[in-house]
Amino acid sequence: MEDYHFHLLWLLLISYILFVLVLKLVVHLWWAPRRVESFFMKQGIKGPKYQLFLGNLKELASLNMMASAQSMPPLSHNILPRVLSFYHHWKKIYGSMFLVWFGPTARLTVSDPALIREIFVLKSEMFEKNESPPLVRKIEGDGLLSLKGEKWSHHRKIIQPAFHTENLKLMMPMMAKSMEAAVMKWSEGMCDGGEVEVDVSDWFQNLVEDVITRATFGRSYEEGKAIFELQSQQMVHATEAYQKVFIPGYRFLPTKKNRICWRLEKEIRKSLLKLIDGRRRRRGEEGVPEESPNDLLEVMIKAAAITPNDVVEECKTIFFAGKHTTANLLTWTTVLLAMHPQWQEQARDEVLRVCGARDSPSKDDLLHLPKLKTLGMILNESLRLYPPAVAIIRRAKREVQLGGVHVPRGTELLIPILAVHHDPGLWCHDPHEFNPGRFAKGVAHAAKHPMAYMPFGLGARRCVGQNLAIFQAKLAIALILRRFSFELAPSYQHAPSVLMLLHPQHGAPIVFRKL
Ligand code: HEM
Questions:
Q1: ipTM
Q2: Counting atoms of ligand 1 from 1, which one is nearest the CA of 329?
Q3: Residue 415: CB within 6 Å of ligand 1?
């Protein structure tokens, strides 16, 4: 009898647990989305209907697939329908503010610059960063990009000075040396006719990797290079998995690829910790010359209240956040200058006028970089038309009013940078034209609203590496302009596409000719 009661009790307990789990699932997957949907509907905000579990993921994937299968007119910069096809499609039906479901998570699209100001500046404390998907989290590191609250502000205060112009100026000669060597190697590889075809999207990845390694590790360049090479390999594996695998928990299975990723992760961590330890011990013994630039590792090691583990995570973040973004900027800028030879000429004239025609950039040339106004305008226009990060996401920490709309706690806001940059209401009559001249009076005056331009984000969490990216881009493009003229290779297919960042789907083959 006692046994019977005991079993009954167990059965009741298990049934109760199962009931609570099922109830939670029903609330999470059905009831809560329906409530949010009707909450927004009452305020006049609509969107594609929520489907159980998947939300709108199926439609999103099919819109994306249709868009990527279509070719674009060769010289068109009207890339929104191809790149953010879901936004372009649903905006026509529901207006610019609509609700879209990424699984059971609601995302409200916001592209009005006045509301964007509220999110990033006026009410920024009401919004937080959302978590990246698990596969991305693994490679982005637990650093500035994803940190929140006190820890984020503490790390930001420590890291920011490494990216100040004065420190970057000290780093410039070594950046220039590495770029110069890469360009030389390239021009040596040219055939007799002085012509070479290069897929710049690959080439710039290597170039940027080298420069970021120098900025992060400085005099420990060789050790840093080995570490970042491992991280590059890890990023390739993770990106492949990101493209192919959608099974929850797949990353925990001991598949061949996963085992490689785990091994790489272990090696990266071990080597970085060894490097940090070595630097810590040598500090004081050697002393760092006063005029020597503060590489990022040095800046973090000097700051007492940051653990070696945090330093490891920040190094990984810097590499993740800085490499592909800057390489993409360089790739699209080269493609744009190949498409628009008159701007290429103008930029080259300026480089020759300001820096002279010497083969190697002198220390003075580097100081002249800020004077390259036309090149600066070209980079701004490139970042407007082809922003490497096409959207930013924030999450409402609590219920908040946004331009008269009540946004419930937990709602994610999707700010489609690309759409804002291509909005005809903000960029006069020619939003899809390549017209660097629109930046002649500075970034703040280029559009009808100062918040309409945000390739590096906005507010307190704007990109910490912006100065480094622009320095690198100016230096690399100036070096190339001085030595080569270039045009699109006959095999080039204009197909901007998104895989984490905006990239050329079929590569970016460019033909370079020695001047
Ligand atoms: C063209 C090049 C680049 C672009 C377009 C770019 C874009 C961005 C954007 C849009 C954000 C804001 C993300 C958000 O608010 O959610 C951001 C943040 C960040 N970027 Fe960049 N970035 C570039 C280059 C770099 C470089 C070179 C580095 C470092 C070497 C870097 C490191 C970071 C970090 C650490 C953050 C997080 C800042 C924080 O939350 O405090 N970025 N970047």
A1: 0.99
A2: 1
A3: no
- 157, 383, 463: which to mutate for ligand 1, most atoms within 8 A of CB? 463
Residue 389 near ligand 1, beta carbon < 6 Å: yes
- Quote the tokens at residue 23: 């109830």
Q: How much distance in Å is there from the Cα of 428 to the middle of ligand 1?
A: 28
Q: Cα dihedral angle (479, 484, 488, 491), rounded to 10 degrees?
A: -110
Ligand 1, atom 9, lies closest to the CA of 456
Cα 220 vs. chain centroid, distance in angstroms?
26
| Strands laid side by side in the 127-129 sheet | 99-102, 105-109, 412-415, 392-396, 127-129
Q: How many whole angstroms separate alpha carbon 486 and alpha carbon 203?
A: 15
- CA distance linking residue 69 with residue 64, whole number of Å: 9
Nearest of 109, 92, 112 to residue 101 by alpha carbon: 109
- Please tell me if the CB atom of residue 154 comes closer than 6 angstroms to any atom of ligand 1: no
Q: Does the CB atom of residue 469 touch ligand 1 within 6 A?
A: yes
Nearest protein Cα to ligand 1, atom 3: 325
Query: Does ligand 1 come within 6 angstroms of the Cβ of 455?
Result: yes
Tell whether ligand 1 has an atom less than 6 A from the beta carbon of residue 379.
no
**Does the Cβ of 380 fall within 6 Å of ligand 1?**
no
CA of 436 to the centre of ligand 1 (A): 23
CA distance 109 to 89: 13
Q: Which atom of ligand 1 is nearest to the CA of 215?
A: 30
Q: What is the pTM of this model?
A: 0.93
Going residue by residue through the chain, which has 515 residues, state the pLDDT in tens, using 9 for 90 and above: 678 888 889 999 999 999 999 999 998 999 999 999 999 999 999 999 999 989 999 999 999 999 999 889 988 999 999 999 999 999 999 999 999 999 999 999 999 999 999 999 999 999 999 988 777 777 888 999 999 999 999 999 999 988 888 888 888 888 888 888 888 887 777 766 688 899 999 899 989 998 899 888 888 888 888 988 888 888 877 776 666 655 666 677 778 878 888 888 899 999 999 888 888 887 666 555 555 567 888 888 887 678 989 998 999 999 999 999 999 999 999 999 999 999 999 999 999 998 887 766 666 667 778 889 999 999 999 999 999 999 999 999 999 999 999 999 999 999 999 999 999 999 988 999 999 999 999 999 999 999 999 999 999 999 999 999 999 999 999 999 998 999 999 999 999 999 889 999 999 999 999 88
Overall residue count recorded for the chain in this entry: 515
